[in-house]
Amino acid sequence: MDQTGRSLISLEGLDRDDILWLLGHAAKFEANPNSKILDGKIVATLFFEPSTRTRLSFETAVNRLGGRVIGFSDAATTSSSKGETLKDTIMMVSNYADLIIMRHYLEGAARYASEVSPVPIINAGDGANQHPSQTMLDLYSMLKTQGRLDDLNIYLVGDLKYGRTVHSMLTAMRFFNPTFHFISPDELRMPEEYKEYCRNNGIKYQEHTCFDEDTIADADILYMTRVQRERFTDLMEYERVKDMYILKNDMLRKTKPNLRILHPLPRVNEIAQDVDANPKAYYFQQAKNGLFVREALICNALNLLK
Ligand code: CP
Questions:
Q1: Catalytic: 240?
Q2: Active site includes 164?
Q3: pTM check: above 0.90
Q4: Of 193, 186, 184, residue with least CA distance to 159
Q5: Which residues, at least 6 apart from 202, have a Cβ–Cβ distance to it below 8 Å?
Q6: 77-87: pLDDT as tens digits
Q7: Which residue has the CA at smallest separation from atom 5 of ligand 1?
């Protein structure tokens, strides 16, 4: 695997074997989540954007593996608020830490950080661009619930324009012959560059604006996403689209027995609360899977996996 001991910025550099190898290690960490493999290592978490799951699961992963965490969850408390550049921040933190996990509001920030950093960078989300660790836990959740990654019908619903998790998923799934269904309002359609990526990589997709029980009847995976208020420059447009797609329990009557509902979370109101008790709802277990996957990604970035 050419990513061993290196930064993880997107999943573009991983092939099918790399992905399955990392997911295999995630399964080993799930069986045995606590060890001392990171003893003596310091990991920095730099979050320039809010987060609950990504930051806390990465930090839990470090703690469970015997390492130590430094970092910040609010850039306003750091010298970047005084005008320090991202390059200087990365250079400083790399003096103190063996690995940097960074979320940033600017697309391309993680790539840039990896180009100037002497230590590996894991991209924990860069604007509307990529969120590779989320995608790896999404794939792990699909593998666990479906028993395979090949030949799945995957329905992506909601904000496909700004949703970095769905953009990363396209990249990772190109080895597994998926059929994607993109369900979104016109304003939030999958950007042309990602549809072109699908066409260039032989990934089948259909686009829909209708979201009802007939449209989703053939789904193996229903991947709901939040309409992200923070990405809109026109808040009137946000108000117009924010409640267009809400999954309700009675929409699941015709769905396949193996269907599982995923969501990167946080949700606002795109999944009604009554879905939570449905056995097909998997989003809370999905978030838990993030811990094991991130244990594997951290150890891989530090070249500690065999
Ligand atoms: N899925 C995800 O990235 O959640 P957080 O924003 O809470 O980290």
A1: no
A2: no
A3: yes
A4: 184
A5: 174
A6: 999 999 999 99
A7: 51
